[in-house]
Specification:
The chain is about 60% helix and about 15% strand. The chain has about 525 residues and is of the alpha+beta class. It has three domains: about 250 residues; about 55 residues, no CATH class; about 200 residues, Heat Shock Protein 90.
Length: about 525
């Protein structure tokens, strides 16, 4: 991971100066004109600068927002300190409520840091995390309410003397302390578990040291009964002992690579092979790839540019590669046209409807989806059969495969930019395949009830399921009946008089579940029933 740049070093030096200023001003006794809130202002400035750097460096918006929310609570903690000692002097009731209010940011900071760790990729179950966040926020609200109303029940502090606050800690205080420790440690553990970079995981001790130092400072403060002193001068107070370790630990996590940050673009340009350059508003290059040449790029390249924040970016687009890919796609299209007229017509419609960029993307998908069937068609049509009856069977087999190639390509085109598709298209595809299957002598029928929109991926899997079942029992198939129920949900049932061994209840199980479907297979009365259902 790239280390601090010149600009980042300046920010780092400013943060160190603010930290030193906070420590020094905390040690100065409160007398005369010396503003005893100077340390709080220094630490607030430090938190603000670090929060702005997080806003610039962290790419994931959900992680960034939760860390910055923790920064807001850190600032609130120092503001509450200033309120207690400067804004309401001598008012015991307000001082006591402000003292209780300390625990609002002190419990919220580790909680939102933990939320940020939960949102670090990979995130397997977003809905579950959303529910967990809501539950924990409600628990946080209840905890803060109990603290703020301590004067009514004394569950947190049992105060014997007002306003000097001679008190003892009750069981709810230790619950709050456990809350802060558990979520602070859980943040580090969660980020460590999600990181897949071995070199970053080996540096786990760097943020762990900051966390340990923070816990030592906090326990030192609590066990000592207040701010530690050197020669009668306060070394630090509760707020900085609580916030600074969080900042240093999180910065250690970012710098070691446990959490992805917005750095290393210069190296990224060189390793990615992108031929581009970023300019500032004055037109001076800021970051460029190793082989960047704006002039004399060649006829196979064109220079493109786009405005970005603070300037613009220029890059060379390789048109020659696209041209060669289009040529290869046209050759594949021509070969398919020679094999089957139906495929040729489909390719012509597709060539008229989409631009060459879309064609470049779709052709690869379609060619991959029907590659096995296309190779089988080529094999069947190029083989010379001695028996006329055998040649007829091979032609019929090629016809059903060609129908699948055509219809699958058509469905993929129609569903390319749509998350749902009409079951009428699936019905037409199934009916055409059954028409070709009837040429073999099979008894075929299709029944359709109603019409509805279903997920595009579920439609593609349904047609692929039909083709896989038919090809599996091609030589043994005598009858095929298809039922398409679309009135109260989606249900496709395929009844075959032969057992398709390759079709089981776990056929493409992961893809079917992601598409919102369910597959069941049963065999009874010498008939195999294959049912695809839509769950939503």
């Amino acid at each position: 991971m790239e280390r601090f740049k010149i600009a980042d070093k300046r920010v780092f030096i400013v943060c160190l100066l603010l930290l030193a200023a906070g420590i020094i001003t905390c040690m100065i006794p409160v007398r005369g004109f010396v503003p005893h809130n100077m340390s709080a202002f220094s630490y607030c400035s430090l938190v603000i600068i670090w929060g702005l750097s997080i806003r610039r460096r962290i790419l994931d918006i959900k992680v960034r927002h939760r860390i910055m929310t923790s920064c807001v609570f850190m600032i609130l903690l120092f503001v509450l300190r200033m309120c207690k000692f400067s804004f309401f002097p001598g008012i015991a009731e307000i001082e006591e409520m402000v003292w209780y209010a300390y625990y609002i940011p002190m419990t919220a900071i580790p909680l939102f840091m933990y939320f940020a760790a939960l949102r670090v990729e990979p995130v397997k179950n977003t809905q579950r995390i959303d529910v967990m966040e809501k539950v924990l926020v409600c628990a946080e609200a209840v905890m803060c309410t109990v603290v703020l109303t301590n004067g009514l029940h004394g569950l947190v502090f049992d105060i014997q003397v007002h306003p000097d606050k001679e008190y003892t800690r009750n069981w709810f205080y230790y619950l709050i302390l456990a809350w802060m420790i558990v979520f602070g440690l859980a943040t580090f553990v969660m980020v460590f578990r999600k990181c897949s970079l071995s070199i970053a995981r080996k540096r786990w001790y760097i943020p762990a040291i900051f966390i340990a130092v923070g816990m030592v400072m906090l326990f030192w403060y609590l066990i000592g009964g207040g701010a530690p002193r050197i020669a009668g001068h306060k070394l630090f107070q509760l707020q900085e002992a609580y916030c600074i370790p969080y900042i240093t630990a999180m910065e250690g996590i970012i710098q070691t690579g446990l959490l992805a940050a917005n750095t290393g673009y210069a190296i990224l340009f060189d390793y990615s092979g992108i031929n581009a350059c970023i300019y500032d508003k004055a037109g001076s290059p800021v970051v460029s790839s190793r082989n960047w040449k704006e002039e004399g790029a060649g006829e196979d390249y064109r220079i493109c540019s786009e405005d970005v924040s603070g300037g613009y970016i220029s890059w060379a687009e390789d048109i020659g590669t696209i041209r060669r890919l289009n040529t290869e796609l046209e050759e594949v299209t021509e070969a398919l046209e020679n094999e089957n007229e139906l495929i040729r017509q489909e390719n012509e419609v597709r060539a008229e409807r989409v631009s060459y960029e879309t064609r470049n993307r779709l052709y690869n998908r379609i060619a991959t989806a029907v590659r096995v069937q296309a190779l089988k068609v080529d094999e069947l049509l190029s083989k010379e059969a001695e028996d006329p009856e055998e040649e007829k069977k091979e032609l019929m087999h090629a016809a059903i495969l060609s129908a699948y190639i055509k219809r699958m390509g058509n469905i993929m085109l129609l569903t390319d930019k749509s998350i749902s598709a009409d079951t009428e298209e699936l019905y037409l595809a199934l009916r055409e395949s059954l028409d070709y299957l009837a040429l073999k002598g099979c008894v075929c029928d299709i029944v359709k009830n109603g019409n509805r929109l279903i997920p595009s991926q579920l439609m593609l899997l349904s047609y692929e399921l039909f083709e896989a079942a038919v090809e599996d029992v091609w030589s043994r198939l005598n009858s095929c009946v298809v039922s398409l129920e679309c009135e109260n949900g989606f249900e496709l049932t395929i009844a075959l008089d032969a057992m398709a061994d390759s079709i089981t209840s776990v056929w493409n199980d992961r893809q079917i579940k992601e598409a919102g479907g369910r597959l069941t297979v049963r065999y009874e009365d010498d008939t195999q029933y294959i049912k695809m259902e839509g769950l939503s």
